[in-house]
Amino acid sequence: MIELNQNTPVDAVPAATVIVCRERDGEMEVLLLKRNPALKNMGGIWVFPGGKVDAVDPGETIEAQARAAAVRELAEEAGLILSASDLFDFSHWLTPAIVKRRFATWFYVCAVTPTHEVIVDGEEIVEHLWMTPEGALAQHRAGDLAMPPPTLVSLHDLAEHANFDALVGAVTRRQPPYFFPTIIQQDNGMVFLYPGDAGYESADPDASGPLHRSISAEGKFRYVRQVEWQARV
Question: Fewest CB within 10 A of the end CB: N or C in the chain?
Fold first, then answer.
């Protein structure tokens, strides 16, 4: 799923991802898209809508361009039309330097009504589904829903909130969490250490202290967080 780079590190490409939520039958659901299995990069993986920032995306700053890219990608991949003002900051991910394809990705969260129709492009994206965060995580643990660490981690975050209003209240009070993983290869898989983990700076997964990491084994990931998000200043 993750190709490591044995040569000179490449620069990270700016990108944007949109976590689309809706409330249905008293539960918050999230939109997941399945990437075409024929794609070389993460083929067959379930992700949130998103993609690279293009030159056509307007904005005076890279973050403004990322918001524009998020809106554009959401329309292209899922047929959902929203505006940049509908997006709330959620998190920011920077791919490690040892990975072949690197992205600096702004994650946003937004809401649509149950009447919004999702239309996938049929090329890059071939399927979609709405699931509760808890349901998606359960299917991943069962081996039925393959996903990369950023999707997994985000679903855990979403699962902590009973509804969209509670989610927005939380994300607007906090500094968007920053994820720049340190990857440790082990015999039975990989460990992704995130800021706040006791072993993050030393790249030591056995360091004593709080844990903030994803652990891979047999194509599945497990997320552990024992740190608090930083409040906005």
Answer: C
